[in-house]
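Recall the central idea of this unit: under ordinary conditions, the amino acid sequence of a chain determines the structure it adopts. In this exercise we apply that idea directly, starting from the sequence alone.
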Amino acid sequence: MNLKNDFLLNPNYRHLNHGSFGACPSPIFDDYQYWQRRLEQDPVQFFVHDGNKQLEISKRALAEYIHCDPDDLVMTMNPSYAINIIAKSFSLLPGDEILATDHEYGAMDRTWNYYCKKARARYVQQEIPLGIRTKEEFLDHFWKGYSHKTKAVFISQITSMTATVFPVKEICERAKELGLITIVDGAHIPGHIPLDLSSLKADIYTGACHKWMMAPKGCSFLYVTKEFQNDFDPLIISWGYEAEVPGKSKFLDYHQLQGTRDYSAFLTLPKILEYMDQNDWGTVSSRCKQMILDNYEDLCDIAGTKPITAVNSEFLGQMCSVPIPIDDGNELKSLLYDTYKIEIPVFQWKDQIFLRLSTQAYVDQEDVDYLKSALKECKQTISSWK
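Accordingly, the structure predicted from this sequence is:
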């Protein structure tokens, strides 16, 4: 089966940027529109009864997939929204520290910096050098940022810019020993690498379903262990605050009852899991991951650089970031998009330009070979390419 035909992506371009916003297959998008039509056919019944019932079904399906209690989950539009819930109410005193890495997603950095400044606390972005080859090496660098002032760890399980899998399980284990709260940004995890919240033991976890699970846009979740669920105020005060008819928990009332909104994207989760099961998604994902392992070093050779992490399944999933030795990435990005019809991110991280390749069901080796050929030609065109 050619799953490329299932996706709604413009066929005139090669889409190698699944990691940014995902892509939704037609069967899932059709289910999304089905729920939108159900809403419009009878909004009152939908919001009072039908939609809420389907939301519970969706949450149970997601909870089974990521191995947690559905009552420990609330659905959110995106991980940034979820982390804002946490950061806004997180109890910080002057001098307290949140330990993170210098690879975190920019929106998350801004969130923590904002609330840390308000509390006169510190957001510590511990440097993790490029080129790390073992988990032990990573952990050694990371925990150098710890001090007696550290109150919590905030960390990505897969980074956005550097496309690297971090050893979050080991970090959570050590954090428990140190009495620290663990907050994990798993935006790139669901549908990408296995997620078992029951064994990960993170206190707080957010993931996006609209990336690698291929949900319609605006479908993510926030997981909080029962121990901490009452610590966080609603980001938006609505009917769930001091609810006239309280639900199962204050956590669900506060963060799930948000007034009128189209949450049809949340309701597609059973269809998504059905689609993944029907198409043997373990095999699909393994093929995509192998493409990264097979091509990462070749792409770096073309660029005249080296991989920024060990080229193995411990550190890489369905993405890799290739250092490009040029002064400005805009010229390369424009060339690839306008001339070669390739949609792929080219960006600056710190003082280096990177190109990030994502492989999903609609990407095959011919697409990657075409990218390689295009890069070879661009290398001859861009004068600053060292």
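The CA atoms of residues 39 and 348 lie 42 Å apart.
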